[in-house]
Amino acid sequence: MGGNRAFPHSQYSNATTDYASKLERNSVVNAYEFVNPTPQRHQQRTSWNHWQLRDVVLCPSSRPELYSIYRCNVDRYDTRKHQSTRVLGDLTFDPVSMAVGGDYIVVGGQRAELAVGRLSEPSETTVVRVGGSINNFVALDRQPSGTTAAGVRRRLRDSAAFTDDGVTSLNITGAQDVPRLLVCNNDHTVRLLSLPTLNLLTELRFPTAVNYASVSPDGAKMCVVGDSNQVFLFHKNGDTFEKMATMEASNDASFSCDWSQTSEQFAVGSQDGYVTVWDIRTHNKMVQLETFQHGRSRGACRNVKFSPSGSIDLLAFSEHTGYVNIVDTRDFAHRQVLCVATGDETAETAAQSWAGSPGTGSQDLQITGLRFAPNSSALFVGLEQSILEYTVDRVGRHSFSSSAII
C-alpha cells in the first residue's frame, strides 16, 4: 500500500504514490532529519484515561513548561529545571482532555465532568457536569470579534444548506470580552461557554459524536471531526458559526485536527491510519498520508499538529504506539519517522524494525500526546513513563534549496 496519496495543486487528482517494498519506502522517508532523532528525556509520567484520546501534553506558552495529565492529576513540568509541580490533584474523575490558557485551566472527564480552575488559585477549582457524555476535547477559544449585544437570543442560519447533514447552530448570547471555552462531547455537540461562569453562548449539534475541534490561528474558521469520516468546516465570527462545507477524510472516525499557521491548510488524523490535508482556498485535498505502521490498530493516527510559528513548515502526527511521523509541508514528499521506543531513530534501525515486526515488543510504547513548542523549536512526545523533547533543526528549515518555492 502507498504511503502518500498525493493530490497535485494543479489537478488534485487521485494519483497514489507506491513504494516497491517496506524497506524501500522506509529508506525514502528517513533520508531527512527535521528534528534531532536523539531526544532529551524528561522524567515526567503521563497517562491516557481513554484509549482513543491521546492529547494530554500541552505547551501553552513561551515559558519552558509543560502541562500533562497523570491519572487523576494535572502536573506542570519545568523543562529547564526538570521540576514537576502538581497543579490539580486527586480529581474525582479520570480526566481525558485539558486546556490551559491565561490564568485558566480546564479539564474534561468521561462522564461529562468539567473542572475549571485558575492557575493562580488551583485550590478553588469548580467541578460541574456539561453535556451528556464524554468531554472528548476542551480548548480556550481565541478572543471573539464581531459579536452582538448581550442578551440577544436567536437561531442562526437555520436553512436547508445548514441542516442537510444534521448540523444545527443555536446562538444564545453574545456577551463581549469574556473568555470562551470550546467543549466537544460524545452527545454530538460542540458548545461554546463563557468563563468562569460556564454560561452557554453557542451550541452546535452534529449527526455524530464529536471528538475534536480546531479553530484556525486567524480565528475565522473551525474544523470539527468525530465518530464518522465526515469533516465539518465552519466560518467563525465571534460566537457565531456558519457551515462552509462537509468533507470526507478517509474511511474511519477521526480524533484530531489542526490548522497551519497561515490558516490556509488543515489536517485531519483518522483511526484507519491516514492523515488528510486540505487547502482551505479550494476545499480540495492536497495529500493523504499513511502512518508508518498502517491500519487502525497500532498505526491509528491519534494526534496531528502543524508547527505553529516561523518558517519551519512541518506537520507531525503520532500513531497509537511506537512512532511519530514528521512531514515537510512545503511539498509533502519528505518524511522523518521517529521510533519513540529507542529515542535514537535512524534509517537503519527503522529498516530493521520494518524487516522484523514493527509494533511489537519495545515498539508498543503508548503515545499519550504530541505538541510543538510555540516557537517551533522543539517537538514534545508524551509517553507513559516520560516526555521526550526533540530539537527542531530550525537552521536547516530556514535554508531553502535553489529550487524551493517560498
TrEMBL record:
<keyword id="KW-0853">WD repeat</keyword>
<dbReference type="InterPro" id="IPR015943">
    <property type="entry name" value="WD40/YVTN_repeat-like_dom_sf"/>
</dbReference>
<dbReference type="InterPro" id="IPR001680">
    <property type="entry name" value="WD40_rpt"/>
</dbReference>
<feature type="domain" description="DUF2415">
    <location>
        <begin position="299"/>
        <end position="338"/>
    </location>
</feature>
<dbReference type="Pfam" id="PF00400">
    <property type="entry name" value="WD40"/>
</dbReference>
<dbReference type="InterPro" id="IPR036322">
    <property type="entry name" value="WD40_repeat_dom_sf"/>
</dbReference>
<protein>
    <recommendedName>
        <fullName>DUF2415 domain-containing protein</fullName>
    </recommendedName>
</protein>
<dbReference type="Pfam" id="PF10313">
    <property type="entry name" value="DUF2415"/>
</dbReference>
<feature type="repeat" description="WD">
    <location>
        <begin position="247"/>
        <end position="288"/>
    </location>
</feature>
<dbReference type="InterPro" id="IPR019417">
    <property type="entry name" value="DUF2415"/>
</dbReference>
